[in-house]
User: What shape does this take?
Amino acid sequence: MSRETHFRHILHPSPTPADVRAEKLVDPGFGRVFTDHMITVRWSEGQGWHDAEIRAREPFSLDPASAVLHYAQEIFEGLKAYRHGNGVALFRPERNARRFQDSAERLAMPPVPESLFLGAVEEIVRIDRDWIPGGEGSLYLRPFQFATEIFLGVKPASEYLFVVIASPVGAYFKGGKKAVTVWLSDTYTRAAPGGTGAAKCGGNYAASLVAQAEASRQGCDQVVFLDAAERKWVEELGGMNVFFVFDDGSISTPPLTGTILPGVTRDSILTLARAEGRAVREERYSIDQWRADAASGRLRECFACGTAAVVSPIGKIKSTKGDFVIGEGDGGPITDKLKAKLVGIQRGEIADEHGWVRKVL
Ligand SMILES: Cc1ncc(COP(=O)(O)O)c(C=O)c1O
Assistant: This one.
């Protein structure tokens, strides 16, 4: 497929009327409201990527023997489009394109070329631009790729579909409360060395749901996982990376050793913190140290970060071995400052010194 992909337009014959759309955008929540269109691109052996289309969002027809339904050969991405005045911008979409390719490689799937990935997300943003909420909202883009070959043999499939859908979103955590509470799972782990932890594949999330359900039963917003080998090192949350802020102003986050997702937000926070002269470490941090540092006051703040919820202070950790609180349990100034800087750049309100903002319109 050429560098500049042409998407065949088969636009929605009766798109959502403006007044209905406006009503849906008042309080969209997260991942429940969708725009009128979707992108689809097919891949098959011999033909490669072909039939790039933007068309009305509608259900797929899937054969019951489609490979994805049996062996979960599926990957996805998540990124947002923001209103910038009268224009629209994406935040570091090239990073998502690259991670999508890395995930594809891990799941033995053909990678989507970066130009096709970027062309697809930009096309749907252009066509469905009226669905981008103003204020604190944004348009969450969900590219995904899955095996469509009709075959029950266990092997990499010979046919795939690449799809992009779009969903106007508001705040991720209901109630928009300030600090979240996390449940430390000592029953379940998320990813083992050599596994798929660094890939954004649906299977990782399927495996995390029982732990997330346990967290919910404990009254927590999210689950936090320890490493699978020693059950000692803090890895990440079910859907977010984690940061620690110390009394000397330094920050640390677990290193990318293959079992955690290399978050775009994580990388952006590291870059922003370094740029303001802060000491930054990517190092292993044990659960015992976490508990001890919270008790001694050496650990001042703690936060989770990811595209969906951006930056969320972690106020309290609950576990079978007792609970502990970070600082006053309601976040802190360094978390707030890093968040404000990141959100400001994403929304075009602070100068983009790192070349992260990609204007679409
Ligand atoms: C397991 C996990 N960790 C971390 C993140 C954060 O990644 P990003 O900042 O790229 O959204 C996500 C996804 O959003 C995730 O699902």
Observations:
- The two ends are 24 Å apart (CA to CA).
